[in-house]
Write a structure and sequence with these properties.
This protein is α+β, with helices and mostly antiparallel strands. 25% of the residues lie in helices and 35% in strands. The strands form two sheets. Strands 3-4-5-6 form a four-stranded antiparallel sheet, with no helix packed on it. The chain has a two-stranded antiparallel sheet with strand order 1-2.
Length: 128
């Protein structure tokens, strides 16, 4: 398998992180001059209605001269997110009781007229 002129033999060290539908590949590779650099590949699986699937991949190349600045900014960004939102995942999809709505339910909710709740709560029992 070749990747922009680099062969598998250029892979020196690899790690894989599986995270749901995404998989992250961390690969140390060798340049033609014998120096090392890092590639990080995100691979995301997409399933078609017929059951077939394909992967979309995104890759970044990180060279030694950028490691320190990259590490600092990555640490700063991840610390910011944790400080602002905590470690718990807030996405609906990650909730324990998450149930995927059908397309019909989603479309119905999008077009459903929103009625303010105070109209319903201004009822006195004497009126009944």
């Amino acid at each position: 398998m070749s990747d922009k002129g680099f062969d598998d033999k250029d892979e020196i060290f690899s790690k894989v992180l599986r995270a749901g539908r995404r998989t992250y590949f961390f690969d140390v590779r060798s340049t033609r001059a014998g120096d090392y650099y890092l590639t990080v590949t995100e691979s995301k699986k997409f399933t078609h209605d017929d059951g077939s699937y394909h992967y979309k991949k995104h890759k970044i190349y990180l060279y030694k001269e950028d490691f320190e600045a990259f590490r600092e900014i990555l640490g700063e960004m991840t610390d910011f997110i944790i400080d602002e939102k905590g470690e718990e995942v807030i996405s609906e999809r990650h909730q324990k009781d998450f149930k995927k709505q059908s397309d019909d339910e989603e479309n119905y909710e999008e077009h459903e007229e929103k009625v303010p709740t105070e109209k319903f709560t201004d009822i006195s029992f004497e009126d009944i």
